[in-house]
Specification:
Strand 6 and strand 7 form a beta hairpin. The two termini are 24 Å apart. By secondary structure, this protein is mainly α.
């Protein structure tokens, strides 16, 4: 609250002057603040792009004439300065494109071989960032009202269409005593969606899915994208050790994690990010482990 009030008191020239000072001085090396903040915003972009990829796989009638347009509100720009991200569309587009390449590579590896999946592979391969709209690039104050107004205009009458995608694939997914199905990463996660897929009515008494063969590896290949983004030294390698993945998988495999009062709760990918990577406590065990692997951890 204090931060928000202080930022709101700054006019554009004053903010821009302080912004340039921070960028010039940098946060130092190594910097835990810089590492964690940069990773936080990379995770936001990665999650957004993952959901966009799921739309492409789920909605076959979507025409990819241009590409993905990212609209960045910029309300947290003061915080982003700690990541040393400049208020510049070109630099942010470069950041988003590098994240998209990591996602595309992993998703294409997951798509089965064969002529029947050729179009899916092509649709993902052809994905690109068409442009980025940074609401506060020219005027800091513009983002303060534009985001709120946009949220009001974007009201969707079909709430099921606003549900997040599962984000990871769950094999052997069972509700109550119904036959097992596979919930793919690019399928909507919601009570109505799963009811339609499983053809059931009523409450959820039991929920289960197949456990991983190796708990020391990610439950789904998409998950380590979020830890690979935390490896500054070797961008293609997952720096999180196996015993940490065993702990994460243990959390992800708890059936009650996705059920709230007999209703389907947060999607698996949302649960992974919001409850495991960014829990409400102050431990942040897995993020700190990534920081240690990058020699950026400080107490």
């Amino acid at each position: 609250t204090f931060y928000s009030l202080q930022v709101n008191t700054l006019n554009d020239p004053t903010f821009s002057d302080r912004e340039r000072t921070i960028v010039r001085r940098t946060m130092g090396r190594p910097s835990y603040q810089r590492y964690r903040t940069a990773l936080f915003f990379r995770h936001i972009i990665a999650y957004s792009l993952l959901q966009a990829c799921a739309v492409v796989m789920d909605e076959k009638n979507v025409r990819l004439n241009t590409g993905i347009r990212l609209i960045l509100g910029g309300n947290a720009w003061g915080l982003m300065l700690f990541a040393e991200f400049k208020r510049n569309v070109d630099e942010l587009k470069e950041e988003a494109e590098s994240i998209l390449q990591v996602l595309k590579k992993r998703i294409i590896e997951m798509i089965p071989e064969g002529e029947e999946h050729k179009e899916d592979r092509k649709r993902i391969q052809d994905l690109k960032i068409s442009d980025i709209i940074l609401l506060n690039e020219a005027e800091l104050a513009k983002s303060k009202t534009t985001v709120a107004l946009g949220a009001l205009k974007a009201r969707e009458p079909n709430r099921e269409k606003t549900k997040a995608y599962a984000g990871i694939t769950l094999k052997g997914f069972r509700v109550n005593d119904l036959p097992a199905v596979t919930v793919h990463w690019h399928e909507r996660w919601g009570h109505d969606s799963l009811k339609g897929k499983l053809n059931f009515r009523g409450d959820i008494n039991r929920l289960s899915f197949d456990q991983p063969d190796q708990f020391e590896n990610p439950l789904d290949p998409i998950l380590d994208i979020f830890t690979i983004l935390g490896n500054n030294s070797h961008p293609d390698e997952d720096p999180l050790p196996g015993h940490m993945w065993a702990k994460i998988n243990g959390e992800l495999c708890r059936s009650r994690a996705y059920v709230e009062n007999t209703m389907i709760g947060a999607s698996p990918i949302n649960y992974f990010i919001s409850k495991i990577l960014y829990p409400e406590d102050d431990d942040h065990t897995f993020l700190n482990e990534l920081a240690k692997a990058n020699d950026s951890y400080t107490r």
